[in-house]
Structure of Hsp20 family protein:
Amino acid sequence: MMNFDLTPLFRTSIGFDRMAQLLDQANRIDQTPSYPPYNIESIEENRYRITLALAGFSDHDLEITSEQNTLTVKGKKESEVEGNFIHRGIANRSFERRFQLADHVNVKGASMHNGLLHIELEREIPEAMKPRTIAIGSDSNTVDSKPKAVESKKEVA
């Protein structure tokens, strides 16, 4: 089976592109980890939140790093809970979850509440990349109102 790298689709998207994520998930169907479960939500036009369900983990068991366009969340339990379990359905295993961030998406903070880790993200477009309106000037009183390139073509012709 052929594997395609869809990372460029994430970089060209605004925030999180659902179609690129679906294509990426379909491409990595065998490789996609299912633990821990998470949600990605759009709070406002340029604000996002990732929520991971981390029952049994505390903030000192977690490590969050952001490097270039990748957000990595790692969890490692210091000690395994011991006991005589009849059924053990709460996973306390170590994990590493990676998220591809679009260009100019920055991590603003993280908080842990009731077993849910919330990571706040914000897209900040630099001023130089924001669209701007350019005024068109017209001065009918001046003879030299045409661009130089157009004048030089008229003289040659």
User: Anything to note?
Assistant: The longest strand covers residues 105-113. Helices lie at 7-11, 18-27, 148-156. The domain at 7-131 is CATH 2.60.40.790 (Immunoglobulin-like).
